[in-house]
Amino acid sequence: MLDKNYDSKQIETTWREHWAKHSHFQHSSKGEAYCIMLPPPNVTGSLHMGHGFQITLMDALVRYQRMCGKNVLWQGGTDHAGIATQMLVERQLLLQGKTRHDLGREKFLQAVWAWKDKFGSVITQQLEYMGASIDWSRGRFTCDPGFSIAVEKIFIDLYREGLIYRGKRLVNWDPQLQTAISDLEVMYQEEQGSLWTLRYPFAEDNGFLLVATTRPETLLGDVAVAVHPHDPRFQSLVGKLVKLPLTDRTIPIIADDNVDPNFGTGCVKITPAHDFNDYAMAQRHRLASITIFTPQAHLNAKVPKAYQGLERFVARQQIVKDLELLGLLEKVEAHLLKIPRGDRSGVVIEPYLTDQWFISMQPLAKPAILAITTGQLDFIPEVWRKICLQWLENIEDWCISRQLWWGHRIPVWYDTHDQIYVGHDEKTIREHYALPPSCLLKQDEDVLDTWFSSALWPFVTLGWPQSTYELKTFYPTDVLVTGFDIIFFWVARMLMLGLHFTGQVPFQQVYITGLIRDQDGQKMSKSKGNVLDPLDVIEGISIEALVQKRCQGLMQLHMKKKIEHSTRLQFPQGIPALGTDSLRFTYCALASPARDIRFDLSRTEGYRNFCNKLWNAARFVLLHSKNQTPCSTEISFVMPINRAFSSLLHHTIAAMHGQFQSYRFDLMAQTIYEFIWNEYCDWYLESAKPILFNAVDSHRGQETRISLIKILEICLRLLHPLMPFITEEIWQSIAPLMGKKDSTIMLQPYPRINETEQDPVAEQSLAWIKRVVTTVRTLRSKMGIAPGAKIPLLLHQGNETDRENSLLFQEQLSNLAKLSAINWVDDKEKISTITMGLAGTLELLIPMQGFTDRNTEIQRLQKEMDKIKKEIERAQAKLANAAFMKNAPKEIVLQEHQRLIDFTTQGSKLHEQLRYLQNH
Question: Residues 857-881: what's their mean pLDDT?
Answer without folding.
Answer: 87
